[in-house]
Amino acid sequence: RPNQVWDDALHKTVMGRFGWKAGQPNLNQQNVHAFSGDMGLTTSLRPFDDCTDTQTACKQAPNGNGPDGEPEVSDNILRLVLFYTRNLAVPARRDVNDEQVLAGKNLFFQAGCQSCHTPKYTTAANAAEPELANQVIRPYSDLLLHDMGDGLADNRTEFQASGRDWRTPPLWGIGLTQAVSGHTQFLHDGRARNLLEAVLWHGGEAQQAQQQVLSFNAEQRAALLAFLNSL
Ligand code: HEC
To answer: For ligand 1, is residue 143 a contact (CB within 6 Å)?
Structure first.
Protein backbone atom coordinates (compact mmCIF):
# COMPACT_ATOMS: atom_id res chain seq x y z
CA ARG A 1 0.00 0.00 0.00
CA PRO A 2 1.15 3.57 -0.51
CA ASN A 3 2.43 5.79 2.31
CA GLN A 4 0.76 9.21 2.84
CA VAL A 5 3.36 11.80 3.80
CA TRP A 6 3.87 15.54 4.36
CA ASP A 7 4.88 17.74 1.42
CA ASP A 8 7.01 20.60 2.83
CA ALA A 9 6.40 22.82 -0.23
CA LEU A 10 2.66 22.19 -0.77
CA HIS A 11 1.92 22.04 3.00
CA LYS A 12 -0.38 19.07 2.63
CA THR A 13 -0.42 15.26 2.77
CA VAL A 14 0.38 13.47 -0.50
CA MET A 15 1.53 10.00 -1.58
CA GLY A 16 5.00 8.93 -0.44
CA ARG A 17 7.43 7.76 -3.12
CA PHE A 18 11.08 7.91 -2.04
CA GLY A 19 13.10 6.46 0.83
CA TRP A 20 13.19 3.08 2.60
CA LYS A 21 9.69 3.66 3.97
CA ALA A 22 8.42 5.85 1.11
CA GLY A 23 8.51 8.80 3.53
CA GLN A 24 9.30 11.50 0.95
CA PRO A 25 6.80 12.73 -1.68
CA ASN A 26 9.21 13.75 -4.44
CA LEU A 27 12.85 13.72 -5.47
CA ASN A 28 13.54 17.34 -4.52
CA GLN A 29 12.33 16.82 -0.95
CA GLN A 30 14.30 13.56 -0.75
CA ASN A 31 17.41 15.54 -1.75
CA VAL A 32 16.60 18.33 0.74
CA HIS A 33 16.28 15.80 3.57
CA ALA A 34 19.53 14.11 2.54
CA PHE A 35 21.33 17.49 2.62
CA SER A 36 19.85 18.09 6.07
CA GLY A 37 19.76 14.64 7.70
CA ASP A 38 22.83 13.03 6.11
CA MET A 39 25.08 16.08 5.67
CA GLY A 40 23.82 18.74 8.10
CA LEU A 41 23.32 21.32 5.33
CA THR A 42 20.43 23.81 5.31
CA THR A 43 18.22 24.69 2.32
CA SER A 44 15.31 27.07 1.76
CA LEU A 45 12.91 24.16 2.38
CA ARG A 46 14.72 23.14 5.59
CA PRO A 47 16.48 26.29 6.86
CA PHE A 48 17.18 24.96 10.37
CA ASP A 49 19.69 22.38 11.56
CA ASP A 50 18.42 19.48 13.69
CA CYS A 51 20.16 20.78 16.84
CA THR A 52 19.53 19.08 20.17
CA ASP A 53 19.08 21.28 23.27
CA THR A 54 22.64 20.67 24.44
CA GLN A 55 24.29 21.48 21.06
CA THR A 56 24.79 25.18 21.77
CA ALA A 57 27.29 25.80 18.95
CA CYS A 58 24.88 24.19 16.49
CA LYS A 59 22.01 26.34 17.79
CA GLN A 60 24.07 29.54 17.49
CA ALA A 61 25.44 28.85 14.00
CA PRO A 62 24.23 31.69 11.76
CA ASN A 63 24.16 29.91 8.40
CA GLY A 64 20.58 29.35 7.41
CA ASN A 65 19.62 29.23 11.05
CA GLY A 66 17.78 32.52 11.30
CA PRO A 67 15.78 34.98 9.27
CA ASP A 68 19.01 36.74 8.17
CA GLY A 69 21.07 33.63 7.34
CA GLU A 70 21.19 32.35 3.79
CA PRO A 71 20.76 28.58 3.44
CA GLU A 72 24.05 26.70 2.97
CA VAL A 73 22.68 25.05 -0.20
CA SER A 74 21.22 27.60 -2.62
CA ASP A 75 18.04 27.01 -4.62
CA ASN A 76 20.17 26.91 -7.75
CA ILE A 77 22.28 24.03 -6.39
CA LEU A 78 19.06 22.24 -5.37
CA ARG A 79 17.74 22.68 -8.91
CA LEU A 80 20.93 21.25 -10.45
CA VAL A 81 21.01 18.29 -8.03
CA LEU A 82 17.34 17.62 -8.85
CA PHE A 83 18.13 17.63 -12.58
CA TYR A 84 21.10 15.29 -12.03
CA THR A 85 19.27 12.77 -9.81
CA ARG A 86 16.20 12.82 -12.07
CA ASN A 87 18.19 11.99 -15.18
CA LEU A 88 20.76 9.51 -13.82
CA ALA A 89 20.69 6.45 -16.07
CA VAL A 90 20.48 2.89 -14.79
CA PRO A 91 23.12 0.44 -16.03
CA ALA A 92 22.20 -1.78 -18.97
CA ARG A 93 21.38 -5.42 -18.18
CA ARG A 94 24.04 -8.04 -18.85
CA ASP A 95 23.89 -11.70 -20.01
CA VAL A 96 20.21 -11.36 -20.98
CA ASN A 97 20.23 -14.48 -23.19
CA ASP A 98 22.39 -16.64 -20.95
CA GLU A 99 20.66 -20.00 -20.30
CA GLN A 100 21.17 -19.92 -16.55
CA VAL A 101 19.92 -16.31 -16.36
CA LEU A 102 16.78 -17.24 -18.33
CA ALA A 103 16.16 -20.23 -16.03
CA GLY A 104 16.56 -17.90 -13.04
CA LYS A 105 14.09 -15.44 -14.53
CA ASN A 106 11.47 -18.20 -14.69
CA LEU A 107 12.16 -19.11 -11.06
CA PHE A 108 11.83 -15.43 -10.05
CA PHE A 109 8.28 -15.49 -11.44
CA GLN A 110 7.57 -19.00 -10.12
CA ALA A 111 8.45 -17.90 -6.57
CA GLY A 112 6.15 -14.84 -6.83
CA CYS A 113 8.92 -12.23 -6.50
CA GLN A 114 7.28 -10.11 -9.20
CA SER A 115 4.17 -9.54 -7.04
CA CYS A 116 6.25 -6.82 -5.30
CA HIS A 117 9.33 -6.53 -7.53
CA THR A 118 7.14 -5.59 -10.56
CA PRO A 119 9.41 -5.76 -13.62
CA LYS A 120 8.16 -3.17 -16.08
CA TYR A 121 6.29 0.13 -16.50
CA THR A 122 5.82 2.85 -19.11
CA THR A 123 6.23 6.34 -17.64
CA ALA A 124 3.39 8.85 -17.94
CA ALA A 125 2.98 11.04 -21.01
CA ASN A 126 2.90 14.15 -18.78
CA ALA A 127 6.19 13.44 -16.93
CA ALA A 128 8.08 16.33 -15.28
CA GLU A 129 10.44 16.59 -18.26
CA PRO A 130 9.76 15.50 -21.87
CA GLU A 131 12.78 13.14 -21.94
CA LEU A 132 11.23 11.20 -19.03
CA ALA A 133 7.83 10.75 -20.73
CA ASN A 134 6.67 7.50 -22.37
CA GLN A 135 9.80 5.61 -21.34
CA VAL A 136 9.72 1.85 -20.83
CA ILE A 137 11.51 1.28 -17.51
CA ARG A 138 12.30 -1.95 -15.66
CA PRO A 139 12.80 -1.07 -11.97
CA TYR A 140 11.59 -4.42 -10.53
CA SER A 141 9.56 -2.67 -7.83
CA ASP A 142 5.96 -1.68 -7.13
CA LEU A 143 7.37 1.22 -5.04
CA LEU A 144 4.78 0.37 -2.34
CA LEU A 145 5.00 -0.52 1.35
CA HIS A 146 4.85 -4.13 2.53
CA ASP A 147 4.79 -5.74 5.96
CA MET A 148 8.05 -7.71 5.90
CA GLY A 149 7.59 -9.40 9.28
CA ASP A 150 9.26 -9.15 12.69
CA GLY A 151 12.70 -10.26 11.47
CA LEU A 152 13.16 -7.10 9.38
CA ALA A 153 11.25 -4.72 11.71
CA ASP A 154 13.07 -1.63 13.02
CA ASN A 155 10.05 -0.66 15.14
CA ARG A 156 10.25 2.89 13.79
CA THR A 157 7.16 4.42 12.20
CA GLU A 158 7.28 6.96 9.37
CA PHE A 159 3.91 8.57 8.63
CA GLN A 160 1.67 5.55 7.84
CA ALA A 161 4.52 3.02 7.60
CA SER A 162 4.78 0.80 10.65
CA GLY A 163 7.99 -0.58 12.15
CA ARG A 164 7.52 -3.70 9.98
CA ASP A 165 6.80 -1.87 6.71
CA TRP A 166 9.36 -1.29 3.97
CA ARG A 167 9.06 0.04 0.43
CA THR A 168 10.01 -2.58 -2.18
CA PRO A 169 13.49 -1.47 -3.31
CA PRO A 170 14.04 -1.43 -7.08
CA LEU A 171 16.36 -4.24 -8.20
CA TRP A 172 17.68 -2.60 -11.36
CA GLY A 173 21.47 -2.33 -11.21
CA ILE A 174 21.68 -4.60 -8.14
CA GLY A 175 24.07 -7.01 -9.89
CA LEU A 176 26.68 -4.23 -10.10
CA THR A 177 26.72 -3.44 -6.36
CA GLN A 178 30.18 -4.96 -5.87
CA ALA A 179 31.62 -3.19 -8.92
CA VAL A 180 30.09 0.20 -8.08
CA SER A 181 30.05 0.28 -4.28
CA GLY A 182 32.75 -2.26 -3.43
CA HIS A 183 30.51 -4.43 -1.22
CA THR A 184 27.53 -6.80 -1.41
CA GLN A 185 25.57 -5.70 1.63
CA PHE A 186 21.82 -5.52 1.18
CA LEU A 187 18.53 -4.62 2.92
CA HIS A 188 17.70 -1.39 4.79
CA ASP A 189 20.47 -1.82 7.38
CA GLY A 190 22.97 -3.72 5.24
CA ARG A 191 22.63 -6.89 7.33
CA ALA A 192 22.56 -9.28 4.35
CA ARG A 193 26.06 -10.16 3.16
CA ASN A 194 24.90 -11.25 -0.29
CA LEU A 195 21.77 -11.54 -2.45
CA LEU A 196 20.75 -14.97 -1.15
CA GLU A 197 20.85 -13.77 2.47
CA ALA A 198 18.72 -10.76 1.44
CA VAL A 199 16.08 -13.10 0.00
CA LEU A 200 16.16 -15.41 3.02
CA TRP A 201 15.44 -12.46 5.40
CA HIS A 202 12.09 -11.90 3.58
CA GLY A 203 9.16 -12.54 5.95
CA GLY A 204 5.62 -11.23 6.49
CA GLU A 205 3.89 -10.70 3.14
CA ALA A 206 6.96 -12.17 1.39
CA GLN A 207 7.09 -15.34 3.52
CA GLN A 208 5.65 -17.52 0.75
CA ALA A 209 8.23 -16.35 -1.80
CA GLN A 210 11.01 -17.00 0.73
CA GLN A 211 9.64 -20.52 1.33
CA GLN A 212 9.70 -21.16 -2.42
CA VAL A 213 13.39 -20.25 -2.58
CA LEU A 214 14.09 -22.52 0.40
CA SER A 215 12.52 -25.38 -1.55
CA PHE A 216 14.78 -24.75 -4.58
CA ASN A 217 17.71 -27.11 -5.14
CA ALA A 218 21.29 -25.80 -5.45
CA GLU A 219 21.07 -25.48 -9.24
CA GLN A 220 17.83 -23.48 -9.06
CA ARG A 221 19.23 -21.16 -6.36
CA ALA A 222 22.32 -20.54 -8.51
CA ALA A 223 20.07 -19.72 -11.48
CA LEU A 224 17.96 -17.27 -9.44
CA LEU A 225 21.15 -15.52 -8.28
CA ALA A 226 22.51 -15.42 -11.84
CA PHE A 227 19.28 -13.66 -12.88
CA LEU A 228 19.48 -11.13 -10.00
CA ASN A 229 23.14 -10.49 -10.88
CA SER A 230 22.15 -9.76 -14.49
CA LEU A 231 19.89 -6.86 -13.38
C1 HEC B 1 5.78 -8.87 -0.31
C2 HEC B 1 6.68 -8.13 -1.21
C3 HEC B 1 7.98 -8.79 -1.65
C4 HEC B 1 8.16 -10.02 -2.25
C5 HEC B 1 7.10 -11.06 -2.63
C6 HEC B 1 9.57 -10.15 -2.50
N7 HEC B 1 10.23 -9.02 -2.05
FE8 HEC B 1 12.23 -8.65 -2.16
N9 HEC B 1 12.01 -7.02 -1.01
C10 HEC B 1 10.80 -6.50 -0.58
C11 HEC B 1 11.05 -5.42 0.35
C12 HEC B 1 10.00 -4.56 1.02
C13 HEC B 1 12.46 -5.35 0.50
C14 HEC B 1 13.25 -4.39 1.42
C15 HEC B 1 13.35 -5.03 2.82
C16 HEC B 1 14.34 -4.37 3.74
O17 HEC B 1 15.21 -3.63 3.29
O18 HEC B 1 14.27 -4.62 4.96
C19 HEC B 1 13.03 -6.34 -0.42
C20 HEC B 1 14.39 -6.51 -0.65
C21 HEC B 1 14.92 -7.36 -1.59
C22 HEC B 1 16.33 -7.43 -1.98
C23 HEC B 1 17.42 -6.52 -1.45
C24 HEC B 1 17.41 -5.22 -2.21
C25 HEC B 1 18.36 -4.18 -1.66
O26 HEC B 1 18.61 -3.20 -2.40
O27 HEC B 1 18.87 -4.28 -0.53
C28 HEC B 1 16.43 -8.42 -2.92
C29 HEC B 1 17.70 -8.86 -3.64
C30 HEC B 1 15.12 -8.98 -3.11
N31 HEC B 1 14.22 -8.30 -2.30
C32 HEC B 1 14.82 -10.04 -3.97
C33 HEC B 1 13.61 -10.74 -3.94
C34 HEC B 1 13.39 -12.02 -4.58
C35 HEC B 1 14.40 -12.78 -5.40
C36 HEC B 1 12.09 -12.37 -4.30
C37 HEC B 1 11.39 -13.66 -4.65
C38 HEC B 1 11.98 -14.89 -4.13
C39 HEC B 1 11.51 -11.29 -3.49
N40 HEC B 1 12.45 -10.34 -3.30
C41 HEC B 1 10.18 -11.25 -3.07
C42 HEC B 1 9.54 -6.93 -0.95
C43 HEC B 1 9.28 -8.18 -1.52
So the answer is: no
